[in-house]
Amino acid sequence: MSGHSKWANIKHRKEKSDSQKGKIFTKLGREIMLCIKSGGADPLVNSRLADVIAKAKSNNMPNDTIMRNIKKASGDDGNTIYEEITYEGYGPGGVAVILEIVTDNRNRIAAEVRHAFDKSGGAMGATGCVSWMFDKKGVIIIERTPKIDEDALMLAALDAGAQDFNPSDDAFEILTDQADFSAVCKALEAAGYTFIEAAIDMIPQNTVPVDADNLKKILWMLERFEDQDDVQNVYHNAELPEEEDED
What we know:
Elements: H1 3-19, H2 21-39, H3 47-58, H4 63-74, E1 83-90, E2 96-103, H5 106-120, E3 123-125, E4 134-143, H6 150-160, E5 164-167, E6 171-177, H7 181-190, E7 197-204, E8 208-209, H8 212-226, E9 231-236, E10 238-239, H9 242-245
Parallel strand pairs: 8-10
Antiparallel strand pairs: 1-2, 1-3, 2-9, 4-6, 4-7, 5-6
Helix pairs in contact: 2-3, 2-4, 5-8, 6-7
């Protein structure tokens, strides 16, 4: 996926996030809780927690809210037990879809996900049916402004361990290996850069063109998934028109 088309998708998701901050913060709080349960509350030791903190900051979650979530998760009374699930499937036109779920009711969310797939003309598949088409990468998006020197940013990113640097008209997309994501984030933050997106993403190896007949179905399906409280992340390989992404 090119830097520009990736940025178009990021902008679409970002605008939606800004209008639903409460829901986004709730999802991030669940991610923080799961990270702490599996690896402890110290981000210097728990690299997964450090990654989620970077993601929370890029979604404009205030530091005191992040700390409050960490303290709450550290003292969790265990009344609610969440589990992580990944669902995969195909949408209209053969579009590959991966959903990362955090839920306290596996049966409910499975039924809701299957219904959205079926109603859009797609189908939920078995584990692994589409994940082989994606690579897990750290993705950092920095907005292009007159103050940012492209060469200096590229050098800083590559020196910090980034794998790829993709400039576009609107932003700079920096890709990292999953294991190097936190280190690259810290190095760029220390150099004075701010992020509008920073997360571990599933990047499609190839994208699938979407025809007019399937476009509305795919957009409906993706929105249905994103509106679910239990759905943390939605990944797909649909090649959506830029005007749809940037509305």
